[in-house]
Amino acid sequence: MASRTPPSRPVGAVTRGTTNPNRLRRMDRWIAAVHGPELRRSPDPVAVDLGYGAAPWTAVELLGRLRTAVPAAEVVGIEIEPARVAAAKPYERDGLAFRHGGFEVPLPGGRRPALIRAANVLRQYDEGEVAAVWARLCGRLAPGGLLVEGTCDEIGRRHVWVALGAGGPRTVTFATRLGSLDRPSDLAERLPKALIHRNVPGEPVHAFLRDFDRAWAAAAPYASLGARQRWIKAVRDLSADWPLADGERRWRQGEVTVDWAALQPRAA
């Protein structure tokens, strides 16, 4: 259970800080579209951009995208490196603030976030550390809150993220710019830390990507209609054997979301 008293020093390690404008647009748009209704119902729809990096672009963009679905949304960017917080301060405005901190997620006035987004933060950690970090962050959420933790490439073409609530992980979402995709298993290099080392025979995530590649190959005739139609056909066929948590509206965006229980690692 998370401590009620914040530690004297931020919890976590400094990340590389790599960031680019629009890097997290796919994740942001998914959050706004899929979880916007939940955030609108929150009495205090504050979101945390945890570990936003050397520049504040991702926090600025998150606020803009959330407000398309949740006009009252606020964003607090939290960074463990003080110099990055100081550099971000000039970008503060109504609904956007930056604070020094880490996994303890320090918010003023005892506020608890309705959303924590942690993108490209856990890549440098050991797989065995992930569950404890997830539990700590979920323990900071407001009732009904959401944690989104995942990884993407430097320019935001390929993402994989896990959505979690108080009860733990719920879903895994794969998202890509379809024009850049040779085959679905190209996304394996962006699996979050909890899954990336499990992409080996005998593990569910490996079986899922294998089946996705097979469905993609079988849908090759649809390529003449465009990559989107091929993706939709492949995902529709995949749904016969895997519990997908979304539908064609999201598939058209180059996404597919799978129940976590179907992909969770096997016990060692």
From TrEMBL:
It comes from the Bacteria. Residues 1-20 are annotated as: Disordered. This is Methylase. It comes from Streptomyces enissocaesilis.
